[in-house]
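Protocol step 4 of 6: structure prediction from sequence.
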Amino acid sequence: MTIAASLLAACIGAVVGSFVALVADRWPRGEDIVVAPSHCRDCGRRLGARQLVPIVSWCLQGGRCSWCRARLPVDLLLAEAGGAAIGLMVMAQSPQWPGALALAGLGASLLLLVLLDVRHLWLPDAMTLPLIVAGLSCGQGALDLVSGPPLADRVAGVVAGYLALEALRRGYRMVRHRDGMGGGDPKLLAAIGSWLGYAALPGVVLLAALAGLGWPAIEALRGRQAGGDTPIPLGAGLAVAALFWLVFVQL
C-alpha cells in the first residue's frame, strides 16, 4: 500500500465508523438514521461541519460538546478509530474491489454489533442472520469474493458455532435457573463461522474470553465502574476477536 492509499482507506473507514456509531445510537431508540441531522444529546444543538470530522473533532473538543460542554461518549472516538483500522485492514487484505467491499461490509457489521452489545447487550437478528448468508455466499466455493476456508468448512462453522453456544446457554439456564447469555451470541458465533470456518472458532472464543477479562478496564475508560454483577458483552468480544483473526491469522 502507498501512503496516500493508506490515508484514504483510513479516512473512509473513520467516516464509516462515525456513521456506525450514529446507527448504534439511534437504532435502539427507534429514531431516523438517514434524514435527521446530527445533534448533541444534551443540549440539542445541531452539529456543524467542524464538529463532524471523525477523530479530529472529538480530540480538538476535548471529548466535550462545543456548546454545553457535556461529555461526548468515548464510544464515538473508539468507533471512528476502529473504522479507520478496518479501512486499513480492507485495503491491505483485499486490493480487488469486490473482495474489499465484502470485507468492508463484514467489518462495519461487526463494529456495529460491538457497539450495540456494549451499550444495550443487544445482537439483533437483523444483523447476525444476514451475516451468515453473506459469509456462505462470499467465500470460496460460492461468489469467491474473499479468501478463506472451503464452503463445507464454513457450513460446519455455522452449525458448530451456533450449537456450541446455544448448548452452553441452555445448560447454564437449566443449572442456575436464570439466563447467563443472550440468544444473539450463538447466532453471532454462527455468523463468524460462516466467514472463518469451524477451525477458527476455538481461537475466536478464547480471544473473546480474554477480552472479557479486561472488561472492567474498558468500563473505567468509559467512565463507569464494573462490579461483580456487571454483565459482560460476550458478543462484542466475539466480534473483536473475529476481526483480530481476520487480520493476523486467516487472511
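Step 5 (inspection) to follow. The chain has two domains: 1-93, 105-114+122-251.
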